[in-house]
Design goal:
globular, disordered C terminus, single chain
């Protein structure tokens, strides 16, 4: 395996990697904390939670296998050359593992907190079942020929596909409610920072090695960053431009211990002193 040509570039690569992972990891906490303070998950798309679990599980399988398995690493070098570097760092393994733990906590919140009439859609359930059926079929195909690199590449493709569609339910929910109340914008800002840091990190490795193999050798990572950035910009536009006035209406004289209103159906019922009547949204 190739080594770094520049120690400073290696340090920059590692720092950027952990910056992106820390941003992506902490992006899961604001929504979790908001749910806990409000004792409600209304406004959070349950489809997003289900689809995100599939995405993070697939990403963990790809990263952990390529990082730890010498057999898969050999197949990678046979395909891309022994003068290349493995395009997965320890931080890439940590992120999806941590994300799955947070998804479990949010799932518990969904069970015990106020959720109104929200539920997981049949479409999300169908996607979930179909994706894991496809993964099982790929495993069945890979076993006879020991095509492990191809197998984990399929999981990498799955995580890209799931990244593409997992945010759509939340964006659509914001659109139908004409509001982002109940959906924390803080994770989006952190996610955007993590996506940009990831692209810069991969560019640093390419510049040091004089090769862009790490981009298409691990195509899922840059695609993950690009798709995440695209949806982040959509959510930012929804929160700060499209529905900004409606978000500001619920910030008047609120109890500091409960700054988020409880949303039921299409009405915001606020515990703020300045609003004796519900506000239609």
């Amino acid at each position: 395996m190739s080594s770094w040509n520049s120690i400073p570039m290696e340090i920059i690569y590692e720092v950027l990697g952990w910056i992106s992972i820390i941003c992506w990891a902490f992006a899961g906490y604001p929504q979790l904390i908001m749910n806990f303070r409000r004792k409600s998950v209304v406004g959070l798309s349950f489809d997003y939670v289900v689809l995100n679990f599939t995405k993070q599980s697939s990403y963990l399988i790809y990263n952990a296998t390529l990082f730890f398995s010498t057999t898969v690493q050999k197949q990678y070098f046979d395909k891309y050359g022994y003068d290349q570097m493995i395009p997965v760092a320890l931080s890439d393994v940590f992120f999806p593992l941590h994300a799955i733990l947070l998804i479990f906590v949010v799932s518990v919140q969904i069970v015990f907190f106020e959720r109104g009439n929200q539920k997981v859609s049949k479409a999300a359930i169908a996607i979930f079942v179909s994706v894991w059926f496809f993964a099982a079929a790929c495993l069945y195909i890979a076993i006879p020929t020991h095509s492990w690199l191809w197998l984990i590449s399929m999981f990498n493709s799955i995580q890209v596909f799931m990244t593409l569609i997992k945010c759509s339910p939340q964006a659509f929910l914001n659109f139908t409610r004409k509001s982002t109340a109940g959906f924390s914008i803080d994770p989006i800002l952190l996610d955007l920072t993590g996506g940009v840091a990831t692209l810069v990190q991969m560019s640093v490795q390419s510049i040091d090695q004089g090769s862009w193999v790490n981009f298409f050798g691990n195509i899922g990572k840059p695609l993950l960053a690009l798709v995440s950035i695209a949806f982040d910009l959509i959510f930012i536009y929804q929160h700060f431009v499209l529905y900004h006035m409606k978000a500001s209406k619920v910030s008047f004289e609120c109890d500091p211990e409960s700054i988020e209103p409880l949303i039921k159906d299409s009405v915001i019922t606020s515990n703020c002193k300045g609003f004796p009547q519900p506000i239609d949204i």
